[in-house]
């Protein structure tokens, strides 16, 4: 049976990471969306021009690629470089290259993909098993450490790479390698086989989509089996507890995401795939409730998820420290993968809202402007300026105030690569007689809206720098269809204008239903004036603070923008004065604290602080009434920039949440 | 040479953990202080009656004691139970038993000490090496893992146990075992030997005091060598960085305590010992500056130290989260050890202030009332009620809202045992012609104040329940001497009364200099009315919150004291109403938040919260202006209890820092 024969019901070359067989919305494909210049087109260009080579050269230098050659040549040893999941970085890079190749057709990318595929293929065992860390000479046996070994996790990423290849250039050797690996997994872990699961969910995502792409139900069946086994203590207990890898509670019984954030999000995204393919409404609704509570109580203003360094995990409800926010880049990407699947299944605008927030403030924050250094963790508060990692050095995973070229655990750079290469896939969606614009940038869309009808539009905008979005109809069927525009949740007082008629629209979707003709123009004006944002009082870590947002962008203050001798701890914000836009930066009215260094000997005292260091001496009470009204303190201009640009000018202290004058 | 001969210049039976050869203050000995009933006498009694047996039986059950037998019988194997530092728990228990035996002379304790000593002695190698984890059959070689192996750490605790034995009942087999072990360390790591140090400081403390107790300078020399080697990258680098074990910066060049809290505090305490013995003023002043900044910026209201779970370490300045406070019990005890050495060297009252705070709010908090369960970490905020650990189960080290009988890493119970057994050693100090009362409880003191003069007093008080302290002179020399009373830093408006004369005194020391006669009575009235305490505004984690203290005790709110259906997140404090004492508990005027469950879909919004959930929906802006003035919210009586008693009534949510009505 060839791929073409099995591809019925799916679009094997649709250039989309997710193609459910049912759902409220249909993702647009490769040839239906093209970006012009703009915020995201720039990042896609840098990704292709710099990040791909950067990742491949690091993996060559560290021997992660040579690991495949050593398996092929039978020279594996105990000195294998890299963690057990290093194979997955190669697969994620290939996946990114495939999506990018589908977009641009750059032959150099195709050559790179074939080159890497050849090295990988030679490492595959006769029975389809493919892994460079287990099962060969001087290595532990296959599947001898399901908790930590990441064997199935690696395979899951291989399958996602194959899906990208299949949908952007058709079946080839990579797809066949993946099929053999997937078959091996089904034979080994099927109903009659090993009743195990992988400590790091991902194989479920890979199997579900690979099955969709090939139209092969066995792979979805295996994904369903893995999901069903999880949550029953199938894995060995570990010091961090089974919640770490979501083996504590079955996904149908859970009420919130918990444990390791990336694990939880990959798992839940795969559960949506299974729920959709099975038309399992109960499971889908359970997952929607888990998403709701997670977003309402365990998510950062940036869209970032994961509050704890100790286990890279979610904290409890309202546990959202700015300074120790882990907010791993990969967790942001995994959150987008989950929200996108939920959007396609339900058509609920809230999922597109979170996707925009997370792309703009987590994914866009990770890479440096040159695409060759990355943030792994994305804290909302950097207390002291970090150190710039040595260009040639591998950084520890997350403890830095500066982007690093590569990490010991380096999941983020290749994840950023595939996330940027697919941004356009999340920009719009279609349904029968309907086109929905979800994200805004300069782009051309020509969408199949069913029954052979096409709706084509050109979107012109400088968003997010500017709030004016112009949508010009290029092609439309004769009969009435619906054009939906997403009005972001923060967009209070957005205005839609067509045929000279203006109306204020609420956040959510604005549906324009009529017969469009080529040349029709609709404008959407989004209010991108900077605004103050306040936290729910139950978020203890940022009580008494305010943040500034502008359009979809979270802003932050950096110490490099302060006058010499003034630190971020010395300033409070006077929120009686509205924030002012100054060429894309935001100016606030700050008030300098009189805080004398070194400040009190004991930081707790009987004087209520008025913006300067209160507190009594540990020795005497003499400086106990140190507080002075800030009204007497000097005013200072506080200039904020977009959070996604922080530390681009070098090490700096940084705050998203700024203390307010009480 | 016998111990007696070498003991010149030290009091070999003084019953004190620390006896410097010089310093501003002299610690009082075994026969100079006796406690009556009271807060600390009760805890010492429970410690002796329950905690010792509890610890020994757990270590027997887990095989930590049998590890010594297996070395003796040559049956060591890879299946050795316990961590590499489990030997030290046995030594800490013996140390506690020795101090307690010195206090009470209970023959059962003496028998237990001899019984344990015998088992330990049989495990000692011919050359003095003593360790159950390294250097024997099926074990890694001696000193093959200085970073993590804890060999010298274990020996340091052996030496401290021997010091306790020597000073409470004289030389015996335990002291000889320790001497052989100490000699082995000096021979192995001396100037011409291995240039290594231990990943966990402690050997330095043990060597310095053992040297003092024996009057043998070689041990102090070795301690000085170890201290000098540290901070130069002597140990292998680790993912957490060399700051974790203070091998990043020489102690003379550091400006604040950092890295693993217990390691940093043990190391610095030993550095004080060396500085004092060497009369090294520069080193002593450096350490005083490090203490100042650590206390001013890296210490919790309870006196607890260590903000991070990830590395059990100090955070950065002002990084003091309540909910994730690690505040390890052992770190509190180590902090007391450091502050006591600094007090003896300088006579500065601030060190006694921190000792009182830490004993009352960290050490007293760890054990359950029955002395058979303990807190390892001491957070200031428990978001959800914890689970009561199974009585027979070993708990993970720190993640619980309930005290556990024992831990996988179980350093805290035995440390609590030795800390409680020595509380009276910190209650007073003497100098030439001077007696200083540092801590208050019912006790009798008869102190040698030099030149054969003695000053004896009886202290009567119900402190900390009550603020009245009566000091009656029992014995005094004919000439004028000084009686100093410590007025705690929080005691605003304390009053001293003698011979009918009353005067208000400032926090610090009140010195009464005159000729006292038997029967003279001095009363000190400390204001123990409950008070609000406010944080320095730079402590981000508790901005907009207030705490309540009463005398030396920190108070907390527990969810078990709230009406059904009301959680700690639903209440804010109206600080316009002063706290009221009600039989040792404190009543506040609380205001209930109108926060509707499940609350907003997105916890950040354009409405400034007034005490209820603000924030806009992730989907729409409809509930964006949800805030209502708290003036309309119902009042609620908020009853607080002492923090050291929290969770004694079972699992509960808890807060020390309470949000205030803005």
TrEMBL record, chains A, B:
Signal sequence residues: none
Pfam families documented for this protein: Beta-AFase-like_GH127_cat, Glyco_hydro127C, Glyco_hydro127M
Region of interest: Disordered: 1-24
SUPFAM superfamilies tied to this protein: Six-hairpin glycosidases
Domain Non-reducing end beta-L-arabinofuranosidase-like GH127 middle per the UniProt entry, residue ranges: 440-528
Keywords per UniProt: Hydrolase
Polar residues: compositionally biased ranges: 1-11
One record GO biological process: carbohydrate metabolic process
Keyword NAD: no
UniProt keyword annotation of S-adenosyl-L-methionine present: no
Record domain Non-reducing end beta-L-arabinofuranosidase-like GH127 catalytic: where: 32-421
Non-reducing end beta-L-arabinofuranosidase-like GH127 C-terminal domain: residues covered: 531-659
Molecular function GO labels: hydrolase activity
Protein name: Glycoside hydrolase family 127 protein
């Amino acid at each position: 049976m060839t791929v073409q024969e099995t591809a019925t019901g799916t679009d094997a070359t649709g250039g989309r990471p997710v193609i459910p067989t049912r759902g409220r919305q249909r993702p647009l494909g490769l040839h239906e969306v093209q970006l012009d210049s703009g915020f995201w087109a720039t990042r896609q260009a840098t990704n292709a021009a710099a990040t791909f080579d950067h990742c491949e050269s690091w993996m060559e230098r560290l021997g992660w690629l040579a690991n495949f050659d050593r398996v092929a040549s039978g020279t594996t040893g105990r000195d294998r470089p890299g963690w057990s999941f290093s194979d997955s970085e190669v697969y994620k890079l290939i996946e990114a290259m495939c999506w990018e190749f589908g977009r641009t057709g750059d032959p150099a990318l195709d050559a790179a993909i074939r080159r890497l595929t050849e090295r990988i293929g030679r490492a595959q065992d006769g029975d389809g098993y493919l892994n460079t860390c287990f099962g060969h000479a001087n290595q532990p046996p296959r599947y001898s450490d399901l908790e930590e070994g990441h064997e199935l996790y690696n395979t899951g990423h291989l399958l996602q790479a194959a899906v990208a290849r299949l949908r952007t250039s058709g079946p080839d050797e990579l797809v066949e390698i993946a099929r053999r690996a997937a078959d091996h997994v089904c034979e080994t872990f099927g109903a009659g086989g090993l009743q195990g699961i992988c400590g790091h969910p991902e194989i479920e995502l890979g199997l579900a989509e690979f099955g969709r792409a090939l139209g092969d139900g066995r792979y979805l069946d295996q994904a369903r089996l893995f999901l069903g086994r999880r949550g029953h203590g199938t894995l060995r207990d570990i010091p961090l507890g089974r919640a770490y890898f979501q083996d504590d509670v079955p996904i149908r019984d859970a009420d919130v995401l918990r444990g390791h954030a990336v694990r939880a999000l990959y798992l839940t995204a795969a559960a949506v795939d299974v729920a959709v393919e099975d038309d399992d409404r109960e499971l889908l609704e359970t997952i929607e409730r888990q998403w709701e509570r997670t977003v309402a109580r365990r998510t950062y203003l940036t869209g970032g998820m994961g509050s704890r360094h100790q286990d890279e995990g979610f904290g409890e409800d309202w546990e959202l420290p700015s300074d120790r926010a882990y907010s791993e880049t990969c967790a942001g990407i995994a959150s987008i993968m989950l929200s996108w699947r939920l959007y396609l299944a339900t058509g609920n605008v809230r999922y597109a809202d979170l996707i925009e927030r997370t792309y703009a403030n987590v994914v866009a924050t990770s890479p440096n402007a040159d695409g060759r250094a990355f943030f792994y963790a994305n804290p909302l508060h950097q207390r002291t300026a970090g150190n710039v990692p040595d260009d040639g050095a591998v950084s520890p995973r997350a403890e830095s105030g500066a982007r690093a070229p590569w990490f010991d655990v380096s999941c983020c750079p290749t994840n950023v690569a595939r996330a940027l290469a697919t941004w356009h896939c999340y920009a719009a969606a279609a349904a029968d007689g309907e086109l929905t614009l979800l994200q805004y940038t300069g782009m051309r869309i020509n969408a199949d809206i069913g029954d052979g009808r096409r709706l084509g539009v050109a979107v012109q905008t400088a968003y997010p720098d500017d709030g004016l979005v112009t949508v010009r109809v290029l092609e439309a069927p004769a009969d009435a269809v619906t054009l939906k525009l997403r009005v972001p949740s923060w967009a209070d007082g957005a205005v839609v204008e067509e045929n000279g008629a203006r109306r204020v629209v609420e956040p959510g979707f604005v549906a324009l239903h009529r017969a469009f003709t080529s040349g029709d123009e609709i404008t959407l004006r989004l209010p991108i004036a900077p605004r103050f944002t306040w936290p729910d009082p139950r978020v203890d870590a940022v009580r008494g603070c305010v943040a500034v947002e502008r359009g979809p962008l979270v802003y932050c203050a950096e110490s490099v923008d302060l006058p010499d001798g003034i630190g971020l701890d010395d300033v409070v914000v006077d929120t009686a004065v509205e924030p002012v836009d100054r060429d894309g930066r935001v100016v606030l009215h700050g008030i300098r604290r009189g805080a004398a260094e070194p400040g009190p000997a004991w930081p707790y005292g009987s004087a209520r602080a008025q913006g300067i260091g209160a507190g009594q001496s540990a020795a005497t009470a003499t400086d106990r009434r140190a507080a002075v009204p800030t009204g007497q303190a000097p005013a200072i201009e506080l200039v904020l920039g977009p959070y996604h640009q922080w530390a681009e000018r070098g090490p700096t202290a940084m705050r998203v949440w700024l203390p307010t004058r009480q």
